[in-house]
User: Fold this.
Amino acid sequence: MATINQSPAKTLDIKLKKSSDINEQEISWSIPQIRLLLDLPFNDLIHRAQLVHRQHHDANAVQLSTLISVKTGGCPEDCGYCPQAARYHTGVENQGMLSLDEIVSAATAAKSQGASRFCMGAAWRGPKQRDIVRMTEMVSAVKALGLETCATLGMLKPGQATQLSEAGLDYYNHNLDTAPEIYDEIITTRNYQDRLNTLQEVRDAGINVCCGGIVGMGETRQSRAGLIAQLANLKPYPESVPINHLVQVEGTPLYGTAVLDSFEFIRTIAAARITMPNAMVRLSAGRQEMSEAIQALCFLAGANSIFYGDKLLTTGNPEVNSDQTLFKKLGLTSR
Assistant:
């Protein structure tokens, strides 16, 4: 390990060298080191990300997930990006919880189209106990179909993660959203520690963590480095890391934000791959707005998971046939 008085650049070079005696989960990444990554010439950054990717993953395999909104709209939170917040007028209609039969039908269809993971999301600040009871039934039913299960239900109270684990939940998604220093510019109804507390509940229950963030919310490159540092320094870092590109929805406070340059988004993907080498890095929200060429560069930068077809909560995703066509062009296989 590098000593504390080494420069960020020298320490970075040490970290990027493959060494069989380094425990990657024990490496700490500073914001200056990740900023150095993000500032690299584009070709150098992509080359380094691709080297790391090939050391830890099949370079031409992409994991397919499908996400369904179990309960839509009416959320009491004030997340500046979210059209499901009750306080914003976005045209999203409130929808109660779907039935168990509807979930099983959707999961069956997702599996038939090649998805290996089925994710269930609900617009809650956090689930009530009666919600957890219904969610455990859904998790068990989806698990019985032979799919990996994932849920994103908001902040969990003590004991709720254990109930979900006992039902067979494989992954719990709870994003950090952005760097801690600008968090209260995006959300005021909860704080950063609230997010970390739920992640700890999930870890303690033995559930895999799915945790990433959103870029394109007006943040700086320095703040993106801060987000990646927070994720990479979780012990252990998340098994799945969704990187979302803000989808602007009229009626939300972030509508009209200057659009993030696509190459800046790709840089973020690459930094996530380098700092969290074993994680599945998911090309997540915003993919529908990306050209095939930009998506291809994201895969080259180390993304190896996508949401596949159907709907990503309230924003659309490319249709299944379009994804299959792109995979064929790129010689990618699904897993």
